[in-house]
Amino acid sequence: MYILLTYDVSTVTKAGQKRLRHVAKTCLDYGQRVQNSVFECKMNHAQFVQFRGKLLSIIDNETDSVRIYHLGKNWEQKVEHHGKNDDYNIEGPLIL
Hints:
The chain is an alpha+beta fold. It contains two helices and four strands. Helix 1 (14-30) runs antiparallel to helix 2.
């Protein structure tokens, strides 16, 4: 499955700043950052359930938000990119 995830975490408080770092780190464990608060992730259903559970345990439902877009199997036909790309390829090897 291929998903696009966006988040907005309130950073007014120190706790919010900590949540923001924790959300970003969790997203990096599962996908590729394509913009500041936007990640593209390719995973199976079990990984998705685990990922979503982790995120929902971090955020504050009163002040933060997470949006998950399920792009499906034909995602290549649904994603259009213009401008700087830095040769990003979700199908390519991930070098850490």
